[in-house]
Amino acid sequence: MIYFDNAATSSPKPKEVKEAVAGALQRLSANPGRSGHELSIAASDAVYQCRAALADMFRFPAPERIVFTLNCTHSINTVLKGLRLKNCKIVTSSLEHNAVMRPLEKLKKNGCTIAVAEVFFDDPEATVRSFARLIDDNTRLVICTHASNVCGVVLPIEQIGRLCKDRGVLFAVDAAQSAGVIPIDCSAVPIDFLCIPGHKGLYGPMGTGVLFCKSDLPDTLTEGGTGNFSASFVQPEDYPERFESGTVNLPGIVGLKAGVDFVQKKGVERIHQYEMQLLQTTYRGLKQTRGVTLYTPYPDTERYVPVLCFNVAGLHSSQTAELLNKAGYALRAGLHCAPTAHRRMGTLSYGAVRMSPSIFNHPKEIYSFLQSVKRIAKSAS
User: DSSP assignment, residue 241?
Assistant: First the structure.
């Protein structure tokens, strides 16, 4: 099976990640921060080493304010519910995943209004202006994706972040498709909350997520044991313990550290360049295939991550994906948990087939894939 579903989770995982997870289970099976014995101390150090590696990669100045979560969705919910948002305006984009849209929908019960800024695929400045028009005196938060999980377009978060800072509005970023894929410099970009998964572009295990908290969160999503201040029934104020109740996913965190090291060694820019070359070859081939529809302009390296969607005339997206599965290719069809993005592309009623390569794919796999699509399109015509 040739795997082109890396926007869902990266596969295969680097051997270093597999070895790190196995090693943690073999040598570090102790609860970090809960005991003073040697194994617990070693486990605590392993968790810290991952925080330090993440701080270095994303140029985040305070490792203690890097919180481990279950996944990117958990990070986003921690922010949206931890801010105690009531009777205010929240601005988001027209390309959001349900990880953002569903908690925003729930916040309407708190009197919040949700404003949606249009994203322009070929005009980042127009995208910034669409955000600027919606921010008013009642706006407390702007939250948006860094890169779409449906069409791969990259939002201009640097400019949006500066806009938020100038207007005194908090800024949260869903970096599910960009973390480890394109550089993110938290020391240069005014992001208050950065939400990332460990299992996609960072090549870590599933069940790992991270939340970078440059600003404070007034409330917690969960409360419980933290290993410190145990005599108090009140959740501690100190980061990261305040947001890490219960036992953390130690094997996952150790595996994530190995994934971060793998990406750092390869180089984020080098990985992105290679993956975009594969994607651009795919785009050109699909563009020349009769019966195939593409939904974005040509994906240049500066404004896109390696994600694209297409459809074959005469077939529902799920039918195309099933035929490709039988031919030996793993892709995802449907709405990709992002109906707003599909509404923006005009594919809400039937979805699309998503192709997302990784550093482990090869050009020959792209060429064979294009031939398979061509055969499918010819048979469907």
Answer: G
- Into which CATH architecture does domain 267-380 fall? Alpha-Beta Complex (3.90)
Going from N- to C-terminal start, the domains of the chain cover: 15-265, 267-380
Q: What CATH code would you report for 15-265?
A: 3.40.640.10
Q: What is the pTM of this model?
A: 0.96
Sign of CA dihedral 242, 243, 246, 249: negative
299 CB contacts (<8 Å, ≥6 apart)?
Answer: 152, 276, 279, 280, 283, 306, 308
Structure tokens at 254: 């150790």
Tens of pLDDT along the chain (381 residues) come to 999 999 999 999 999 999 999 999 999 988 887 777 899 999 999 999 999 999 999 999 999 999 999 999 999 999 999 999 999 999 999 999 999 999 999 999 999 999 999 999 999 999 999 999 999 999 999 999 999 999 999 999 999 999 999 999 999 999 999 999 999 999 999 999 999 999 999 999 999 999 999 999 999 999 898 877 788 888 888 999 999 999 999 999 999 999 999 999 999 999 999 999 999 999 999 999 999 999 999 999 999 999 999 999 999 999 999 999 999 999 999 999 999 999 999 999 999 999 999 999 999 999 999 999 999 999 998
Phi, then psi, of 214 in degrees rounded to 5: -75, -35
- Which helix (H) or strand (E) element contains residue 205? none
Question: Cα separation of 367 and 41, whole Å?
Answer: 50
